[in-house]
Amino acid sequence: MIFLLQSKHRFNDVSDVFFFVISRYDDEFLHFRCKDSVFPLLLFRVFKIISTFAKKIPLILALNIISTIRIPENNDWVIFILLGCGFLYLFMIISLQRDATIREFLLQPFEDSSNQILSWMIVSLVYCISLSVLVSQYIPFVPQIVAEKEILGYQLNKIGYTMLSVFLFYFGRMILSYLFYQSIADSRKWPLFYFAATKFYFVVSLILMALIIVHYYFGINKAEVFPYYILGLCCIFAFKNLFYLFHPQKVFPSEWYYKILYICTLQFVPLLALWKLLFF
């Protein structure tokens, strides 16, 4: 505080004081002070939380702490999300599936299954969250039309924007898939379809949660692994359609032109639309 007393600057409020501190000392000094002192680190954490959810506060704009002080990234929120997804799956296996093992759940025939809709909803929720957490790190920016929208001072960041887009995408595709089966007068296969989709997305969500742990906690090069993620998603897309085509329950319509119509209009085209929405 000595340099503040010796300074000839006139300070009108607290923001002026902090702005002077930041302009007086370079990044390395601030980084050193935050590492060796408890109060500056605690102060930085508080301001980081505020600035994340209320970016319009004048004091935060004056401080510009996020871009000035270099603090190692804290990924505790990832653990909380994974724990929440794990608890949802435990509830589904223990309560909804009557203490079935994962192997029994995956090999369970349609006639012996129970709570199919609830299980489908839980698996879809976990899958969308897991996919959003993994993909959000590669989103270049949040569109300005979305970033400008505020609710009680809150704004969507990259992960919030990704979750919103993914949830709307899968909810819309689910509605269109239901209408597709109703329009071709083959509604009896709709329960078989979401029953098979539940098993498939359950396995994929487990793979995504494993990738999230590797991605956030093993220090991998994000730019180098991105092409492998794209290749993996393409393989999953291809395997999913093969899984539906050759499923023992015959979840696709019997006519081949309906199969092609569904794959093109409700699988391939919506995926391209989601890609354009997130990355362009």
Order of helices and strands: HHHHHHHHHHHHHH
Low-confidence stretches: 1-42, 53-71
Main β-sheet: number of strands, strand sense, barrel status? none
Helix amount: over 70%
List keywords for this structure.
280 residues, mainly alpha, 14 helices, disordered N terminus
Explained architecture:
There is one protein chain. This protein is mainly α. The protein folds into 2 domains: 2-68, no CATH class; 76-279, no CATH class. Helix content is 73%, strand content 0%. The protein has 14 helices and no strands. The chain has helices spanning 2-6, 14-24, 27-36, 38-53, 58-63, 65-68, 76-96, 102-107, 116-135, 144-147, 158-183, 190-217, 222-245, 256-279. Helix 11 runs antiparallel to helix 14 (256-279). It is globular. The two termini are 48 Å apart. Residues 1-42 and 53-71 have low confidence and may be disordered.
